[in-house]
Amino acid sequence: MLGFLKEPVVVTAKINVSLVALTVMGLISRLWGLCYPRAVVFDEVYYGQFVSLYMKRIFFVDDSGPPFGHMLLALGGYLGGFDGNFLWNRIGAEYSMNVPVWSLRLLPALAGALCVPLAYQILVELHFSHCAALGAALLILLENSLITQSRLMLLESILIFFILLAVLSYLKFYNLQKHSAFSGSWWFWLLLTGVACSCAVGVKYMGLFTYILLLATAGLHFWHMIGDQNLSNVSLLCHFLARGLALIIIPMGLYLSFFYVHLALLYRSGPHDQIMTSAFQASLEGGLARITQGQPLEVAYGSQITLRNVLGKPMQCWLHSHTNTYPIRYENGRGSSHQQQVTCYPFKDVNNWWIVKDPGMQQLVVSNPPRPVRHGHIVQLVHGITTRYLNTHDVAAPLSPHSQEVSCYIDYNISMPAQNLWRVEIVNRESDTDVWKTILSEVRFVHVNTSAVLKASGLSGASLPEWGYRQLEVVGEKLSKGYHQSMVWNVEEHRYGKSQEQKEREVELHSPTQMDISKNLSFMAKFTELQWKILTLKNEDTEHKYSSSALDWITMDTNIAYWLHPTSGAQIHLLGNVATWASANAAALVYLCLSLWYLLRRRRKIYDIPEDAWQLWMSAGGICGGGWAVNYMPFFLMEKTLFLYHYLPAVTFQILLIPVVLQHLSDHLCRSVLLKSMFSALTVAWFSSVYFVYCTFSPVTYGQPALSLTELKALRWKDTWNILIRKQ
């Protein structure tokens, strides 16, 4: 029974020493002196705020992308024991002792370090030589811009890591296709491809470019499989379903899970609440939830309500009125109705309260039992403090002459009767009998007499003049198709009115709302709203000192000064390795010219290289050249402030193209021993120049040692580079 103990247990393993050495060098280059500088560097001031909010569980919205990358940075802070207490308000500010700088920068540094062995393995899986793979890894290792970006609390290194991991995983999966389909390793690499793609998109939406590239590549490969007569229909169906599951379904589910964790962590009210709907705000602990939690759910005749405009940008505002009237004549000479002003007011105020009245009854209190208002019901809206009725008529609005003026009706005993009936239309209803609900229902108010829709036009235009206290204009918009959000309102605060007498009702309106029923949004409702806000919420794009155009990146005519020591000349810049970037451009040009030449020759039935070499050339170009194109070209279509670091994913793929071109030139164009020897010598000399440039710019890559004035001036290889030189 114990006979197996008579022989020693032996475990054998094949270790790629080159791969281990590259990994160690990558770790050293990215982790050395990681705590330096112990100060806020460039966009750390931006991401650090989100890390602090995670630590305090406070909700926020970042319009730059999904939350996965932010959560990874926050994980570093959590592992380092960060309590979130630091004021991220200035680049160069010294970190206090409670900020675990090393821990916060660790995950980006590890991701950047692992890009080195990933580059090696990608070239191996593309069936290039060990020397070509080693060259690709060393170029990534010595790329100054990637080192700089990896050593700070930024997201680009994490994005590039997941992009390269996705590419490597797909290549490994594809290479197992012919001989090990549906094996354990086949499934592992296929699933890892989908997971890595989802993580890349979850870090930044730029990851979507590589995801689309891999989906297109997988689609092309599957198209070729369809023509394989050795595969049965059932086998093809299984392959199709496996790819659909791993590359579409699982990434979508994982993407949703990022938001689920994000929303589960950030359950407290915070500074970004106001851009969300009332329903979303009410689901957060504190803030609006303290006011609205437990309010009556169903709006009834006699309900006292505040109406918030759903658009919520550029600011939130509530339907409002006050005793002042529109001027008899406006500045441009047009006349008004001289009725009581109705505006949209961006602050909570007692004059925001309205009473929902049944036109057929006089009472302004809720009956027992309450009579709920449903979709399509006709109501009157009575201003709580002044008891005047919301009204619109065929009089031009003050700022929008093509729309109707909205007012609270004053009877001047002239030929202008009240027109104060409104039809409630629930936009997000499930049926035509839906009840109007607090917070959850989004409603339009359609004027019965003129079919105009109540609209907060001031959210997209100028505010009213001094006579309107600079508040926002509300108009009756002639009925138009569609539901623009400025025409949609929701009940935010709600109580059942109990006082029929005006003085008692005013006291009631000044008192806080009561709690009866809680309202909770489902995860999918929260996800949909948050995702829409991320995609549509845009900060005002202003010209930045270090912003650049996509054309500047190719020739690296721009740089970014990340940090400057307050007393010495030490500084950190985002600058690429000039030799590598120039070589990458040359490699891309050579690849394009050679590919066109081969295609023309093949059209004439002239085959300059063997078929397997042609397939290798095209597949490498599809991954490396295609990766560069899909990660670079979209920026020409973007209307946003661009920076040099946006180019890093693209240039990473372009760098991988260099050894591909070099090996191809050596194998197929250098046909004599002498030419091969000369080409090898030139390659060594070129690589020495890459190393020389890396060493030259290392002081501004790592921020140390501090350089003298003369040394700093010597680093300004281009007039367009902004090397910071202190005035003496």
Automatic annotation (TrEMBL):
Question: What is one term from the GO cellular component aspect held by the record?
Answer: endoplasmic reticulum membrane
Q: Where is the MIR domain?
A: 296-359, 370-427
Among the Pfam families in the record, one is PMT
Keywords for the protein's UniProt record, in alphabetical order: Endoplasmic reticulum, Glycosyltransferase, Membrane, Repeat, Transferase, Transmembrane, Transmembrane helix
**Catalytic activity, reaction form:** a di-trans,poly-cis-dolichyl beta-D-mannosyl phosphate + L-seryl-[protein] = 3-O-(alpha-D-mannosyl)-L-seryl-[protein] + a di-trans,poly-cis-dolichyl phosphate + H(+); a di-trans,poly-cis-dolichyl beta-D-mannosyl phosphate + L-threonyl-[protein] = 3-O-(alpha-D-mannosyl)-L-threonyl-[protein] + a di-trans,poly-cis-dolichyl phosphate + H(+)
Q: Which residues cross the membrane?
A: 12-32, 68-88, 100-120, 126-142, 154-174, 186-203, 208-226, 246-267, 578-600, 612-630, 642-662, 674-694
Note the InterPro entries from the entry: ArnT-like_N, MIR_dom_sf, MIR_motif, PMT-like, PMT_4TMC
Instruction: Say which enzyme class the record assigns.
Output: transferase
- GO MF terms on file? dolichyl-phosphate-mannose-protein mannosyltransferase activity
Keyword Nucleus recorded: no
Q: PROSITE patterns this protein is in? A: MIR
Topology in the membrane?
Multi-pass membrane protein
Provide the protein's localization. Answer: Endoplasmic reticulum membrane
UniProt pathway annotation:
Protein modification; protein glycosylation
What protein family is recorded? Belongs to the glycosyltransferase 39 family.
Per its record, how is this protein called by name? Protein O-mannosyl-transferase 1
Query: Which organism does this record belong to?
Result: Vidua chalybeata
